[in-house]
Amino acid sequence: MRKILMTHLYFGDPSEEFSLKLAETLLIGGVDILEVGIPYTDPVCDGEVFQRACKRALSNGMTPLQVLKGINRIREKGCKNPIYLTSYFAPIYKIGLKKFVTAAKSTGVTGLIIPDLLLEEQQNLRRLTDKYSLSLIQFATVYSTKKRLKEIIQASTNFIYCVSLPGVTGDRTSYSKLL
């Protein structure tokens, strides 16, 4: 198994141009995978740092479709690395599943990471991501049962996102001993 470095940025924080420059700098610096977040009004899975990033990006007028245009600009600059798009489900649903998935595919997105969409609720989106060859990343926690892990593995493409601690992201500086 090869170790990879995957970094996350909320697109539009503090500005679109800064996000583009940050993505370019990360890629030049050796990042293997770029995770680009769509800012959301109620990022319940995220801690204070990401909540503030979302608020700043949204106050700049950033929308999901503008984030996709930004990813297109990253691709136009020659980025060949995988780019995963992180979003809560509500913005995707509001745009429309098919419209969102086809727009993501057309910009060169590799896959989707949707932290608030349970495995049992993914059927409609899964049909579209399969049809358009996008990965739909699954989540496991240190508390996932063996039965649940088997279900997650069965549904997974490319990799599994391991949630290392209970609670929101960015609140702690240590990791679970269960890892």
UniProtKB/TrEMBL annotation:
Reaction equation(s) it catalyzes: (1S,2R)-1-C-(indol-3-yl)glycerol 3-phosphate + L-serine = D-glyceraldehyde 3-phosphate + L-tryptophan + H2O
Query: What's in the keyword line of the UniProt record?
Result: Amino-acid biosynthesis, Aromatic amino acid biosynthesis, Lyase, Tryptophan biosynthesis
Q: What is this protein called?
A: tryptophan synthase
Q: What is the lineage of its organism?
A: Bacteria, Candidatus Gottesmaniibacteriota
Give the UniProt family note: Belongs to the TrpA family.
The subunit field of the Swiss-Prot or TrEMBL record says: Tetramer of two alpha and two beta chains.
Q: What InterPro entries does the annotation carry?
A: Aldolase_TIM (IPR013785), RibuloseP-bd_barrel (IPR011060), Trp_synthase_suA (IPR002028)
Which species expresses this protein natively?
Candidatus Gottesmanbacteria bacterium RIFCSPHIGHO2_02_FULL_40_13
GO molecular function terms listed in the Swiss-Prot or TrEMBL record: tryptophan synthase activity
**Annotated Pfam families:** Trp_syntA (PF00290)
**Which EC number(s) does UniProt give?**
4.2.1.20
- Is-annotated flag, keyword Amino-acid biosynthesis? yes
Please give an example of a GO cellular component term from this record: cytosol
The superkingdom listed in its UniProt entry is Bacteria
Q: In which pathway does it act?
A: Amino-acid biosynthesis; L-tryptophan biosynthesis; L-tryptophan from chorismate: step 5/5
* NCBIfam families tied to this protein: trpA (TIGR00262)
